[in-house]
């Protein structure tokens, strides 16, 4: 087809779809309608594709063509550091792939309009181009000031943002290279349609900075090497709150610092102060929001478990400054060296925290179990308690497992509770056995823990296993959360649930394919037959195997993220029909919201006005809480990666043992004994040319035949650390006798 014919056909197509009476048609229908000869169909397809790429026409997910604006959709742009990205439209629709160069001047997190340029087919994602930015997510950017010949520029901490934002001359506030600053963006740079003019200027003389976003320095935080600047950068990067507003602090400081006699004796609040009650938390925890008591009745062989949760709702009233700030924060954020609390310290470490030897208001979930750990009955009631002993996980485990104590006198203070703790362990094991029998998943990953010396420097990082004491508290909190969720589901009142949806069928099939290369099977005939029991059995088979850590991590990544919802859609990972978050109101807003609903329901039973109120507000509370939880998780993960990088800078050139935790076409991931992971880029494997086998997930040397598999032990030397990208590079190390390597613990 000649060029003039192509242009003429383009005009005909455009005139057709602009006609008010036009209804979107598929390619085959357009061919028939326009009378395109059979021999010109291939050329017609090319024309349609060209018009899509030019943004003149659009295509729906069903493959129908119309004006571009007819099929433009709103979504959030998620950029990738390699230049491409995705636009997420909604939970029910697949993401749209945005190829490199098709994002215009959109940045990560922006709300955008996207035009589809290619429909989804044969398993590939739909493709599109961003036609308009509707709302900017990045009005201020944190980063490091650097310098080029053309002037100062900002290198953002967020690797998904453009790597160069020009600092407008005269608007640098005195910032110099090496400073960490907050930059306000003045211009986001030209879109694809408005590139820097070429004219008669030779192209080679056009500075890349002309197409950069431009901003002005709003605040200089300090030099990048100043103490505390690293964590402050993380806080600012994720827009975490740093201080409480004055009105919130004023409200918090007006609260009592002790429970008044009137409160202790109020109608409907049960007095459990004579019960033996304990708290078990981390050594340095200050926000103690749960305590436990246990009665055992030998004649009936029955247990009565009391889970006491701080009654934060008695102090944080709905609509107050404290409440609105807590909703905005959503959750406490636990960074490596500090906590950003959801509530001011007057509450989180004070009147709400269940300290030893003081009266505290609670909401108690009292549950009876038979000798097999089966539930018999329960009650949820406002209460008052007085904790008899503040215990730590390590010391409870030491007592139960008869380990040595550093301080024998401290052991004496625990001994009176030995029988109680033994019975608690007994019940926890019964509850766990019951939970595992129904198919609940248990990812027993060790957690990375950072230790600091008296000067605030990292003394060590190590992987800490879950102890028996952790499992006791975990089981008791899980059963309380389930009991509360089921109780209020059957009461049929508006409520907040914690849900975990089934995995995507495609991800399940991909996981099954990978597992088959390790001789493990994961069966399911169709999406309706996905069961956690299948994954649980698989995790059980992996126990103790070299590939356990890698495959368990892969299984975890294949699952959806848990979230909050007003509908009880079940919790896949826990194999539970009903689940809620009830046990941590000091640090999670959904728990606080649930406490209000429970207390109102106990006091007033049915109240139509409050029912309508909760039906109106709870969807937003669920959404906000899920978003804030994601932000907290990402910030905590980023801070931990940063600290690991800083720590490993002390060991450049040193040799350590590890295990292969990942294999790709780019390199070998190795995890050290202390949980720190780095990568050996394949370009460093100079002794041979290695080929990646995607089916077997292995690397094989072309000449030597040497093969690397998941879980294989491997010695490495630390080659390079980049704190900005949070990455660590290793070199392979092949000693004659590697027994003289270092330990990081």
UniProtKB/TrEMBL annotation:
GO CC terms: cytosol
Pfam family, one: S1
Record's catalysed reaction(s): Exonucleolytic cleavage in the 3'- to 5'-direction to yield nucleoside 5'-phosphates
UniProtKB keywords: Cytoplasm, Exonuclease, Hydrolase, Nuclease, RNA-binding
Main location, first listed in the record: cytoplasm
Keyword match Endoplasmic reticulum: no
GO molecular function: exoribonuclease II activity; RNA binding
Domain of life, source organism: Bacteria
Residue ranges occupied by any S1 motif domain in the UniProt entry: 653-733
Gene Ontology terms: biological process: mRNA catabolic process
EC number, as in UniProt: 3.1.13.1
Localization in the cell: Cytoplasm
Family matches, as NCBIfam families: 3_prime_RNase, RNase_R
Family to which the UniProt record says this protein belongs: Belongs to the RNR ribonuclease family. RNase R subfamily.
Function: 3'-5' exoribonuclease that releases 5'-nucleoside monophosphates and is involved in maturation of structured RNAs.
Name of the protein in its database record: Ribonuclease R
Species this protein is from: Oribacterium sinus F0268
The organism's taxonomic lineage, starting at the top: Bacteria, Bacillati, Bacillota, Clostridia, Lachnospirales
């Amino acid at each position: 087809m000649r060029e003039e014919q192509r242009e003429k056909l383009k005009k005909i197509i455009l005139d057709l779809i602009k006609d008010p009476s036009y209804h979107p048609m598929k390619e085959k229908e357009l061919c028939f309608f326009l009378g395109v000869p059979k021999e010109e169909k291939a050329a017609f397809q090319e024309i349609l594709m060209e018009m899509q790429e030019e943004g003149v026409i659009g295509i729906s997910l069903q493959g129908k063509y119309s004006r571009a604006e007819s099929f433009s959709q709103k979504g959030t742009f998620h950029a990738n550091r390699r230049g491409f990205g995705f636009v997420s439209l909604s939970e029910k629709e697949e993401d749209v792939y945005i190829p490199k160069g098709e994002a215009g001047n959109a940045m990560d997190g922006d709300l955008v309009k996207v035009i589809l340029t290619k429909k989804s087919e044969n398993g590939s994602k739909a493709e599109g181009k961003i036609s308009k930015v509707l709302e900017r997510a990045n009005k201020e950017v944190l980063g490091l000031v650097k310098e080029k010949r053309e002037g100062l520029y900002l290198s953002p901490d967020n690797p998904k943002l453009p790597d160069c934002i020009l600092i407008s001359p005269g608007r640098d506030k005195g910032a110099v290279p090496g400073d960490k600053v907050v930059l306000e963006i003045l211009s986001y740079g030209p879109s694809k349609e408005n590139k820097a003019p070429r004219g008669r200027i030779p192209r080679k003389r056009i500075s890349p900075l002309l197409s950069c976003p431009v901003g002005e320095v709003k605040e200089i935080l300090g030099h990048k090497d100043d103490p505390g600047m690293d964590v402050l950068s993380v806080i600012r990067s994720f827009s975490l709150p740093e201080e409480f507003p004055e009105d919130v602090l004023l409200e918090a400081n007006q609260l009592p610092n002790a429970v008044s006699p009137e409160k202790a004796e109020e109608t409907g609040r049960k007095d459990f102060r004579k019960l033996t009650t304990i708290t078990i938390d981390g050594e340095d925890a200050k926000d103690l929001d749960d305590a436990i008591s246990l009665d055992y009745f030998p004649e009936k062989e029955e247990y009565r478990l009391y889970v006491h949760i701080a009654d934060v709702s008695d102090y944080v009233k709905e609509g107050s400054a404290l409440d609105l700030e807590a909703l905005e924060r959503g959750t406490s954020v636990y960074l490596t060296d500090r906590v950003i609390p959801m509530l001011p310290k007057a509450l989180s470490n004070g009147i709400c925290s269940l300290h030893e030897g003081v009266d505290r208001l609670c909401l108690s979930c009292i549950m009876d179990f038979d000798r097999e750990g089966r539930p018999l009955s329960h009650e949820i009631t406002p209460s008052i308690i007085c904790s008899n002993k503040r215990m730590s996980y390590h010391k409870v485990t030491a007592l139960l497992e008869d380990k040595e104590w550093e301080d024998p006198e401290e052991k004496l203070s625990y001994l009176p509770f030995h029988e109680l703790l033994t019975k608690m362990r007994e019940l926890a094991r019964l509850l766990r056995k019951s939970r595992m029998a129904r198919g609940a998943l248990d990812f027993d990953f060790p957690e990375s823990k950072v230790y600091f010396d008296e000067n605030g420097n990292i003394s060590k990082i190590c992987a800490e296993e879950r102890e028996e004491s952790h499992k006791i508290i975990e089981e008791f909190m899980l059963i309380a959360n389930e009991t509360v969720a089921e109780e209020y589901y059957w009461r049929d009142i508006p409520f907040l649930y914690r849900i975990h949806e089934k995995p995507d069928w495609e991800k399940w099939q991909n996981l099954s394919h990978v597992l088959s290369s390790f001789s493990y099977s994961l069966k399911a005939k169709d999406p309706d037959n996905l069961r956690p029991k299948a994954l649980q059995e698989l995790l059980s088979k992996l126990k103790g195997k070299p590939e356990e850590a890698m495959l368990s991590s892969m299984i975890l990544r294949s699952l959806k993220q848990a979230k909050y919802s007003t509908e009880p859609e079940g919790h896949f990972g826990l194999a539970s029909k009903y689940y809620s978050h009830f046990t941590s109101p000091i640090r999670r807003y959904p728990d606080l919201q649930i406490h209000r609903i429970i207390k109102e329901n106990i006091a007033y039973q049915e109240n139509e006005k409050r029912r309508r109120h909760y039906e109106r507000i709870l969807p937003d509370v669920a959404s906000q809480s899920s978003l804030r939880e994601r932000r907290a998780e990402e910030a905590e993960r980023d801070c931990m990666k940063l600290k690991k990088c800083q720590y490993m800078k002390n060991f450049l050139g040193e040799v350590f043992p590890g295990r292969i935790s990942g294999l790709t076409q780019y390199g070998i991931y190795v995890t050290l004994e202390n949980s720190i992971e780095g990568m050996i880029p394949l370009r460093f494997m100079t002794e041979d040319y290695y080929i990646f086998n995607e089916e077997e997930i292995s690397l094989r040397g072309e000449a030597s035949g040497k093969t690397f598999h998941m879980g294989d032990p491997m010695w490495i030397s630390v080659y390079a650390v980049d704190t900005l990208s949070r990455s660590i590079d290793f070199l392979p190390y092949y000693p004659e006798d590697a027994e003289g390597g270092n330990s990081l613990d």
